[in-house]
């Protein structure tokens, strides 16, 4: 008997609503065509639609950042999708670009390369997208939704020092995997009993986030008591 499809977001089956498939890495990160290997997971249409605006916001903030500006797919977005949006919805960018300022920019070697515009992210929205990517990775690799008891946390990796305390988990991760290009790549490691998930998520070969999913202390204690 075929297992029922469960939503990557809420974990419920199709009796709770119409199901479709979700590109857990936002498909809007590509200007037009996505690689054929792009993974999808089951999701309720209602759950899926709830995050479309956050996915678009996340894409736009990456695409207009200095770090990602040289990536060819970002260049396509800036000449196409984002250019059209800027012409038609200028207020969108004014609203979403928080604390815009000009600040000095440095190469990885520490060399000053000039001043560039900078802005603050709406981290809550970015966090929502990254949590969903983690849930998608978990589902794609384990063929089931992530346990709701897992507490998720994400943060940007600015340099190697950000990973020092977590190096043993990074060392245990699989090699970088993606969809046939370098718009998105991930490394990850899971605990066999779902006690943790750690991953690296890289976008446009330029911006990397570290994500952790840990079984909540309360749930772990209850599990130990029951065992």
Describe this entry's structure for a reader.
The chain has 227 residues and is an alpha+beta fold. 33% of the residues lie in helices and 26% in strands. The strands form 3 sheets. It has a 5-stranded antiparallel β-sheet with strand order 5-9-8-7-6. Strands 1-2 form a two-stranded antiparallel sheet. A two-stranded antiparallel sheet has the order 3-4. The longest helix is centred in the middle third of the chain and has 20 residues, at 123-142. The model is unreliable at 219-227 (pLDDT under 50).
Task: Please give the structural blueprint.
Blueprint: E1 19-22, E2 41-44, H1 45-49, H2 52-63, H3 72-79, H4 81-88, H5 90-96, E3 98-106, E4 112-120, H6 123-142, E5 150-157, H7 167-172, E6 177-178, E7 184-190, E8 196-203, E9 207-215, H8 217-226
Antiparallel strand pairs: 1-2, 3-4, 5-9, 6-7, 7-8, 8-9
Helix pairs in contact: 2-6, 3-4, 4-5
């Amino acid at each position: 008997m075929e297992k029922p499809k469960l939503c990557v977001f809420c974990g419920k089956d199709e009796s709770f609503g119409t199901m479709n498939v979700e590109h857990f890495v936002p498909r809007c990160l590509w200007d037009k065509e996505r690689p054929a290997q792009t993974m999808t997971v089951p999701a309720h249409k209602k759950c899926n639609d709830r995050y479309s605006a956050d996915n678009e916001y996340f894409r736009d903030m990456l695409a207009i950042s200095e770090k990602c500006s040289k990536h060819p797919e970002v260049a396509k977005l800036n000449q196409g999708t984002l250019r059209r949006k800027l012409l038609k919805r200028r207020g969108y960018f004014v609203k979403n670009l928080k604390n815009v300022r000009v600040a000095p920019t440095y190469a990885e070697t520490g060399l000053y390369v000039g001043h560039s515009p900078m802005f603050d992210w709406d981290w809550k929205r970015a966090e929502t997208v990254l949590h969903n990517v983690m849930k998608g990775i978990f589902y794609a690799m384990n063929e089931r939704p992530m346990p709701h008891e897992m507490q998720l946390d994400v943060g940007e990796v600015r340099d190697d020092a950000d990973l020092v305390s977590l190096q043993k988990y990074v060392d245990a991760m699989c090699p970088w995997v993606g969809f046939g290009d370098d718009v998105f790549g991930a490394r990850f490691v899971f605990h066999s009993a779902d006690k943790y998930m750690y991953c690296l998520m890289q976008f446009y070969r330029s911006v990397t986030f570290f994500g952790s999913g840990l079984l909540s202390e309360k749930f772990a204690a209850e599990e130990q008591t029951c065992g």
